[in-house]
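Milestone 3.1: sequence recovery, worked example.
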């Protein structure tokens, strides 16, 4: 069961954290006989959003971004991030005690090979690294003449005073009315996939996979209804779930039945050791090196295979798709009330980013049906909107000033679906440039929405459609165009995605992806238009020779008319926008009233040239 907590806008992290904690960590390393330590952002479960007790990188460095790492040696240390956090990392990390590197220019293993001293001993927590990442570090250490060694206890955990306790929220059952398939049937399907992989068992450590497989949800992870734990699944569909017993209610125990054994999570190592002589499938991209180590020590035969749950979880069944539609209708009503508020009260120029984020949160929670946000709202006014992964705090808070653009990216967790939507709204009158660039983004959004494509097409092959109008104007954006979305699970899920460097995973009917092209003018404004869509078909095309797949829209929220420059839109694009708005009006109007309903009618009225 998720435990809703309102957004906090307090300043977290910062240089003082690194200044206070780095000496404590170095003292712990000295006690452990180590000359250095590797600090990834990841936790033991490879979560995107971490429990407070797992925010080790933030504790050690002050950097609170969701992607990054650090290496601490006796006399120097370095923090590594990517281009999304160029500004944030320099605000939060003290450059006098940490070097700061971009991972695209200096990967951590390359830095280690040049900075580790010959004969030094560098520690790592095997539960926090993938085997492939560790292989790179081991080769780098060897090149420097250093030794890389695992630790049984993470020295950060030892040095961290008043470290938050591990979460222990109760599990809940995801009922058939939302899941659409029993966990017995899911386990049978997954067991058959394990056998096809040439294995007898699969070791699963990804919380979203466990939640989907057993039709359970939890409250251990912020903004995602996940429980921390692990599982072993046999090719006959029987399974063992390793989870803290305090989380298991009588209802969950009865729901799991006698084909699922329950054991405390601390016995997972014993469970792995017991697989001596058996063939075990493990995903090296999700499971930690520790899992591989335990299986090897226990005498199991390991086959490296993708988590057998990833693909079936990504392909939503009819019940899950219907749930997503219903969740988006309710979410659309909340968004419509918020967009009306932005178009009226927030036009004063006196409202700030935090007030706007809180207002949207209030509209969502007023329904009584949202279980949580799906992520902390990106509420970016003016120049802050040009930071794609911006998070507002009391330190960065800006007014929604007239003559600027406001970008808001938000979502909700509903029992039947997860939402994620971005809208860009003018505060006051937009400039001609703002309207032109918004319309170029809109043209790309529409092009992807209208795409038809054959079986076997990947997201990477479609990514160009969303970028082409921008490219032709000499513009682009540096994030992916689309990510997968779970069914009352994580707001970011694979294996599908739409991006320049997308995986080779073909899109399949039932997959939900985001469609979110954007444009960002540094120190000025940001534009992004994001809807969730799902893959349909394949269906015959009149006069065509091959059936084609396509997309159906889920998100229901007006796209701001004042930012649309119809002079650079084709008739087909305008037809799409008018049809989209007609659908929004028809579905949302029954859920709103008074001024909001009148505003919605105007906001979704047909646009003519």
């Amino acid at each position: 069961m998720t435990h809703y907590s309102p957004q906090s806008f307090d300043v977290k992290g910062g240089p003082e954290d690194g200044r206070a904690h780095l000496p404590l960590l170095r003292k712990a390393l000295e006690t452990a006989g180590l000359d250095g330590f590797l600090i990834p952002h990841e936790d033991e479960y490879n979560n995107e959003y971490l429990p407070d007790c797992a925010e080790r990188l933030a504790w050690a460095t002050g950097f609170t971004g969701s992607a990054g790492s650090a290496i601490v040696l006796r006399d120097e240390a370095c923090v590594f991030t990517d281009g999304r956090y160029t500004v944030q990392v320099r605000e939060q990390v003290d450059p006098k005690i940490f070097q700061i590197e971009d991972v695209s220019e200096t990967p951590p293993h390359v830095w280690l090979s040049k900075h580790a001293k010959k004969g030094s001993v560098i520690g790592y927590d095997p539960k926090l690294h993938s085997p492939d990442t560790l292989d790179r570090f081991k080769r780098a250490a060897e090149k420097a003449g250093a030794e890389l060694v695992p630790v049984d206890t993470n020295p950060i955990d030892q040095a961290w005073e008043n470290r938050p306790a591990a979460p222990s929220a109760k599990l809940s059952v995801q009922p058939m009315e939302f899941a659409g398939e029993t966990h017995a049937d899911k386990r049978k399907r997954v067991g058959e996939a394990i056998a096809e992989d040439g294995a007898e068992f699969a070791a699963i450590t990804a919380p979203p996979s466990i939640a989907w497989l057993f039709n359970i949800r939890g409250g251990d992870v912020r903004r995602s209804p996940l429980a921390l734990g692990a599982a072993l699944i046999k090719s006959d569909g029987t399974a063992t779930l390793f989870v803290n017993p305090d989380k298991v209610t009588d209802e969950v125990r009865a729901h799991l039945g006698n084909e699922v054994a329950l054991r405390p999570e601390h016995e997972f190592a014993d469970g792995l050791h017991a697989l001596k002589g058996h063939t075990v499938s493990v995903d090296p991209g999700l499971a930690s090196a520790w899992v591989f180590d335990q299986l090897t020590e226990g005498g199991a035969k390991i086959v490296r295979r993708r988590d057998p749950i990833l693909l079936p979880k990504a392909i939503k069944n009819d019940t899950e798709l219907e749930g997503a539609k219903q969740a988006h209708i309710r979410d659309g009503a909340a968004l419509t009330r918020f967009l009306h508020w932005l178009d009226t009260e927030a036009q004063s120029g006196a409202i700030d980013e935090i007030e706007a984020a809180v207002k949207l949160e209030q509209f969502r929670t007023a329904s009584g049906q949202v279980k949580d946000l799906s992520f902390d709202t990106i509420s970016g006014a003016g120049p802050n909107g040009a930071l794609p992964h911006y998070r507002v705090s009391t330190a960065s808070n800006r007014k929604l000033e007239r003559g600027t653009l406001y970008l808001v990216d938000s979502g909700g967790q509903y029992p039947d679906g997860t939402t994620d939507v971005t809208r860009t709204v003018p505060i006051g009158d937009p400039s001609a440039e703002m309207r032109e660039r918004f319309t170029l983004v809109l043209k790309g959004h529409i092009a992807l929405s209208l795409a038809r494509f054959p079986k076997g097409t990947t997201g990477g092959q479609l990514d160009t459609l969303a970028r082409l109008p921008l490219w032709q104007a000499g513009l682009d954006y540096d994030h992916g165009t689309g990510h997968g979305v779970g069914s009352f699970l994580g707001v970011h899920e694979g294996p599908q995605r739409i991006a320049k460097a997308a995986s080779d995973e073909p899109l399949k009917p039932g997959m939900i992806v985001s469609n979110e092209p954007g444009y960002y003018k540094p120190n000025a404004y940001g534009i992004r238009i994001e809807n969730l869509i799902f893959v349909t078909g394949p269906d015959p095309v009149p006069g065509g020779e091959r059936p084609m797949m396509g997309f159906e829209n889920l998100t229901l929220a007006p796209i701001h008319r004042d930012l649309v420059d119809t002079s650079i839109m084709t008739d087909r694009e305008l037809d799409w926008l008018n049809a989209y708005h007609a659908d929004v009006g028809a579905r949302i109007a029954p859920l709103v009233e008074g001024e909001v309903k009148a505003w919605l009618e105007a906001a979704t009225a047909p646009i003519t040239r």
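The chain has 19 helices and 27 strands. The mean pLDDT is 96.
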